[in-house]
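Q: Fold this one first, please.
A: Sequence and structure below.
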Amino acid sequence: MTPNKIITAFVSYSHEVEDTEFCRLLCDELEKHGVHAWTDRRQLRIGEKFAAPIAEAIEVSDAFLVVRSPHAVSSTYVNREIQHALECARRDGKPQVYPLLLRSCDIPVEIRELTWGDFRSEFERPFRLLLASLRGEHADMESSRPVSGSR
């Protein structure tokens, strides 16, 4: 990413309470560090149709952050968003997909070979690594591991 460019990140997550609370903290911290975080609850109004705005937001984002948890595994919406992000990335070269593991769960085959941020036991260190990755910087990847299957 270019240093002065505003990074836009679409955040895909389950609407279960724990996932939503994590997403809120993640987005607040991203915004504090100059990353525009797009979520349905922040950008959509009550009564608004959501499928087209979500698809468009994924298409124009630089990054697609997918928060993985057992609830996300069973979410039809999260799984559709992953598929759309991967299709856009293959077709357009963006968004870059960043899997974030909130709680141990199955990892979709399509993203197993990506390095993921491990937020299962702490927030600060994996957040710093994510922020560096979003900015195109290298960081000590000790708390991130390639996804090799179920965790």
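Q: Good. Now the second chain.
A: Here it is, same layout.
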Amino acid sequence: MSNTQNGAQTGQKTSNIVTRRIASRKKKRLALIGAAGLLIALTAALVLVALKEQIVFFYAPGDLAQKQVAPGTRFRLGGLVADGSVERQDRDSAVAFVITDTVDTVPVFFSGILPDLFREGQ
């Protein structure tokens, strides 16, 4: 064999080795990204299952009777403010009113700044 043919074969071997190294790095990187994605998905699933009952944006008045919420527990209550039920108290920004879901009603005493969307009948 001549030197030029030998040099061409050596160059081709070197090229194949470099190509295999690059492919190997890409496979490792892809496997790492896949494992990280799977770990994140598994963690999110476990958190959602563990907090299943706690991830409630609000309770309806009918839900309160079923859930037996302990007195003093803070939670969000959703529903309609019953017409004529809003009473402003003497104290700073304290309001008493009744929330309804058209079936059940719940008396509420709220102390603080009322939300912008708070109105009777809404």
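Q: Anything worth noting on the second one?
A: The radius of gyration is 33 Å.
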